[in-house]
Amino acid sequence: MKDWRYWLAEQRGTLLAFAIFIVMFAIYTANHPAGFTANVVQTASNKGVLLAFVAMAQTLVVITAGIDLSVGMIFTLTNCLASWLVIGTGLETAFGVIAVLGTGLLCGAINGAIVIYGRLQPIVATIATGAVYFGIALLLRPFPGGSVNEDLADALTGRLFGVVPASLVALFAVVLIVWVPFSRSVLGRAAYAAGSSETAAYMSGVPIRRGKFAAYALAGLLAAIGGLFLTFFTYTGDAAYASGNAYTLFSIAAVVLGGVSLFGGKGSAIGAIFGALAFRTIGDLLFVFDFDPLWQPLFQGVILLIAVSLGAFALFRVRNRLEWFL
Amino acid sequence: MDGAAPLFRMEGISKRYGGVRALEKAELSVTSGSIHGILGENGAGKSTLIKVMAGVVAPDEGSMTLDGREVSFASPAAANQAGIVCIFQELSLVPELSVADNIVISDPPTRFGMIDRKAQRRIAEEALARAGAADIHPLALVKDLPLSRRQMVEIAKALARKPRILILDEATSALAAADVAKIFAVLKRLRGEGLALLYISHRMNEIAELADQCTVFRNGRNVASYAAGSKSDNEVIELMIGREYSHIFPPKPVRLPATAAPVLEARTLSWTDRLDNVSLTVAAGEVVGLGGLDGQGQRELLLAFFGVLRGLSGEILIDGRPVAIASPAAARDDRIGMALIPEDRKTEGLMLPMTVRENLSFAALDRLSKGGIIDRAAEQRLIDDMVGLLAIKTAGLDIPVGALSGGNQQKVVIAKWLMRQPRIILLNDPTRGIDVGTKQELYQLMRKLADAGAAILFYSTDYDELIGCCDRVLVLYDGAVKRELVGAELTERALIASALNIHGGDATPRHGADA
Questions:
Q1: Residue of B nearest to A199 (CA)
Q2: What's the pLDDT at A103?
Q3: Contact A185 B272 (CB under 8 A)
Q4: Does 3.40.50.300 match the CATH number of domain B8-241?
Q5: Sign of CA dihedral A143, A149, A154, A156
Q6: What is the predicted ipTM?
Q7: Which fold has domain B261-337+422-509?
Q8: In this structure, are strands B480-486 and B472-477 parallel, antiparallel, or unpaired?
Q9: Are A200 and B93 a contacting pair at CB < 8 A?
Q10: What is the pLDDT of residues A294-315, one digit of tens each?
Q11: Which one of B94, B272, B325 makes the best mutation probe of the A interface by having the most chain A beta carbons within 10 Å?
Q12: Contacts of B309 in chain A (CB under 8 A)
């Protein structure tokens, strides 16, 4: 086989998510009263990148065969923190941004430390830490409020050169600065190896613990970037429980849509980003076709089921039934 | 050997797992530029020895010296650093990663902190070529390769680490003859380059072809070292056996062959590359053993009977009538009445956190309930019977089964199936990791069940057990039945010889399929 075929096989999940998104988005813009305009794209982009950041965060942890149920709460916590700190002069704002991102990194590192060194199951550990992070968010913002440096906010949610949505550029930058180096580093390789077969990785002398720890910590950082952008869009901090939980669950859906295996070891954050954008577009589609928004959860569920079923076809080829349960 | 100082030496190495001693004051020395063959039965301590060398297991006592300096390895990575690289029996490849990713996995080349994919590709291609497997594409995912190709990747991966001592543990067990020849050429070249190679294999002809020096292990000790070719196959087998025989087996009934009609029969069963035209019969009251080396298709054969495998070809007959067994639930149905005592009780036999009572009644719930409601009194009666029959030692029926000792856990698994009063009992190496006392009870129980009319198919990796318990033993090799040993033919020597598929010993070849 030629090299490109292997590349294609590896990127199949990502390309599928990309195709689903493009089709859905094309249908959306074709039926939008305004059509394919910079404005429509900007709005969609601004809504989409939030989930995209959180889905990227989830991807890192899922690759290690774990799951992070606290990403939505880190997202909420950093939103509340940003509504206090990311304000004032340029220097003050810069420090605020660093503090917010540092907090996210710390939250992720705590998750990682508990899961890896405390040997708790990721699902339990992150439910608990998620509740703690939400509690802190609630202390910071008992009621919605606060404010943000509006110049920065407008710059990052507006358009570059009048056409390109700035939020999309920011997303692209984060992919280049966080995801690409991670996925090509030894630690990233270790995270994949640990997710695919932890014993084989151990026997090969792979730094499993450091790889997993890096994955959890960077997940916290990415969720915080999402939280920061939420603040830029809304100009406020809001410790909304339902919203945090929804982001956690949607991030898992986006990851699955993006071709990342929940069993670990396989998938890419790029796929998860397209998964997130596609998932978000479902709501927009219902809007342009004049459906009652009440239908939204139902449609999101159906799309997710279809996407997941595509991945289950492999089970028909299994010849030893005990392998169904592996 | 004389003259050359050994590169690596192990002295007085002991290792215990719980009450079981895996190694007892074992010694080994390895010289550069030679191939050292290691022989021994299943469970003789070879694997543990290798694991100690490769830093996977820490020995309880003993010392290791490399280049004359004392060393100890805290992890496989530490052993690799010292130049000891092992190719394990269970593959150590990461399935979702590519061949190239796997080859460089312990020490990937980096540039600016990121993995240098071009360099990685180059290293992988070189290593594959050195292993004589240049046809494997470095970008292919390991999970998409067949087992024999994976084994070649495993060897390439070991070579990429520039080892001084290379250990191959059953490295050829999954390989086709053509691949074995390639590997042998590679190994001989590596010997010429000054590497020390340790070669563990059950295939005596391979050892004879490759090795310069051989060491035989038995019961956790090295019992003999000799220059390759200085002993005959039979002498080597004597060295491998040489173990005291314990009279813990119940007497076998004297019976004429083929007096009873078969209850369970297989005709030309084949499945993927693991089962090859297996035909056998088991009559009521008979204990039939499955022998051979580990992993020659015995487990798959039992799973085939129990309805776990899909795409099986051939026929299964119960009481002379062909049946299609589609699932374990169908196999245990009263019309078939089959039970399988699995090999891995912790995953396939028991639900460890649940209570002894719950575990016992799982398989028989349908018999104990009317209209979906469990008859608690009947359940209790049956459980009491079983606990009494098997003498299960437990602090109570409502404690988690995970709290019981290994032997008592195994009794729970057996009791659970006996509650259905099965007519056909399949046992998959049921005495692994069990103390001698419990083993003895199980042997007696097996005979008692057979006398009560059950047909028993018994796979064991312990030759003593097969000889002591079985009326007949079928020896499998490479998925096919190679020999049938009955009555006086059933000796340890014959079992080992036929398990290794060498035509020696005092066994007669199997005469066709059962008519």
A1: B92
A2: 96
A3: no
A4: yes
A5: negative
A6: 0.80
A7: Rossmann fold (3.40.50)
A8: antiparallel
A9: yes
A10: 888 888 888 778 777 766 666 6
A11: B94
A12: 319-321
